[in-house]
Amino acid sequence: MADHFKNLINGKWVDAKSGKTFERRNPANGELVAEYTKSDASDVDAAVAAASEAFKSWRLYPAPKRGELLYTAAQILNERKEQFAREMTEEMGKVISEARGDVQEAIDMTFYMAGEGRRLYGQTTPSELPNKFNMSVRKPLGVAGIITPWNFPMAIPSWKMTPALIAGNTIVFKPASFTPRMAVRWVEILQEAGLPDGVVNLVIGGGEDVGNAIVDHPDVPLISFTGSTDTGVRLAARAAALNKRVALEMGGKNAVIVLDDADLELAVDGILWSAFGTSGQRCTAASRVIVQRGAQRELVERLVARAGGMRLGDGLDETVQIGPVVSKGQLETIHTYVQVGQQEGARLAAGGGIATAGDLGKGFFHEPTIFDNVGRSMRIANEEIFGPVTSIVPVDSLDEAIDVANSVAYGLSASIFTQDINNAYRAMQDIFTGILYVNAGTTGAEIHLPFGGTKATGNGHREAGTATLDFYTEWQSIYVDFSGRLQRAQIDNQ
User: Fold this and answer.
1) What is the pLDDT of residues 127-177, one digit of tens each?
2) From 87, 105, 116, 283, the catalytic residue
């Protein structure tokens, strides 16, 4: 019998009030992973009520002590890293080495934010008036609604929840329906570390029933969402009617620029990892390769040769390089884009098919696919595919490469391969993305710097680093006048 997983509300594991359930199967082989309770707005109401009550005391819990609880959680995560990585691979498909990295990112983020419990810096400034002291402090807002995707099912929840917690907020957490087991494991760790009942609440269910209920709830003042741009924009519109604070982390159409002077072997390594890691199911995936014409032929030949030798299969096999995509629907969407690319006139240089040989037919596998001679205006060069497909766009110069890189609706990540420091600095200056790499692929962000993008990728907030604390806290400016008389700032300072 498959495991059955429940919601966590006010410290207790409970089924949805409706009694409904749903299943999740391994995308590599169709085997049953687990059964989950299927929640709705009534379960969200109970979770928000618990979080609202817990906030009254949690906001007063000393921040260094909140940090100590997160240190404990990080230590437990580290001890169970291998178990969680294997369960992640079973649930969503990424290869085991990447799953270990996903858990490690949660470990790193939890340790990092634990340390912020002894900082949470404000400011002190000199006053323009005598015998007066000025300072600013951070304050929590209340209940944070956390809505996360399936592609990084432990890392992304940690990005959002640990800063929310260290700042003194409480949480109602809705994970993606493809990966609720990892959400349960993460919340179990926080509970085991000693977080008080009601501080973290988990509600498992779909976006229509649970996500919208969190966004609409009047007692949830801030929402952090990672997912598609279309969904994020609709969510923000709903939240705007209630004047809520919203952080959106959405799509990407990330470019690797390869100039004529690049180290091509290094560029090939970076492109293959960025384009086909997690089967291309990353918001930072390299779905465009903008190459100067002098390097195009050799680069494409090397990419095609390497991509053709990549091994597909169950991600628990340590020799597998590309696992399944997350679902049948995602597989069909990816393959539709391959057909679009062919119809648009791009040259299919490698892959292009749904992989069905042997055991691959039991799961959702797509060959790593490379299109050559892609025009900058083609759909495959502009729309997020979220699968193992990348497009080679030839250009004549660095100026044209930067123009093409900036031409899409998104602005998350980009990279440039060059051995000319002047070219590297031009890219740093002129490419308008939230993240830029020099002589590396488009993935590999570290948790102590801000993560996020420009344009349709987000709405200006950032995950990770200390920058994320600005979203989860409200600034309060405090003026202490010890002059013994009324001082009227600018009126008395003329």
Assistant:
1) 999 999 999 999 999 999 999 999 999 999 999 999 999 999 999 999 999
2) 283
Q: What is the predicted pLDDT for the residue at 494?
A: 65
Place of tokens 């680093």: 465
Of these residues, 87, 91, 116, 249, which one is catalytic?
A: 249
Angstrom distance (rounded) from CA 176 to CA 149: 5
254-438 CATH choice from 3.90.1150.10, 3.40.309.10, 1.10.10.10, 3.20.20.80: 3.40.309.10
Q: Where are the alpha helices (DSSP H) in 319-453?
A: 328-344, 398-406, 421-430
CATH topology of domain 3-250+458-477: Aldehyde Dehydrogenase; Chain A, domain 1 (3.40.605)
Q: Which two tokens mark 416?
A: 């440039």
Q: Could you tell me the pLDDT band of residue 490, with boundaries at 50, 70 and 90?
A: confident
Please answer whether residues 287 and 445 qualify as being in contact, where contact means their C-beta atoms are separated by less than 8 angstroms. Answer: no
The ranges assigned to domains in the chain are 3-250+458-477, 254-438
What DSSP element (H or E) covers 70? helix 63-79
Q: Tell me the pLDDT tens digit for each residue of 267-319.
A: 999 999 999 999 999 999 999 999 999 999 999 999 999 999 999 999 999 99
What is the DSSP-derived secondary structure letter of residue 123?
Answer: E
Using DSSP's 3-state secondary structure scheme, residue 337 falls into: helix
Backbone phi, then psi, for 292, in 5-degree steps? -70, 140
Radius of gyration over every alpha carbon of the chain, rounded to an integer in angstroms:
24
Confirm whether 249 is a catalytic residue. yes
Sign, CA torsion 433/438/444/450: negative
Do residues 418 and 270 make contact, with C-beta atoms less than 8 angstroms apart? no
Q: Give helix 81-92 / helix 96-116 axis angle, nearest 10°.
A: 120
- Would you call 283 a catalytic residue per the annotation? yes
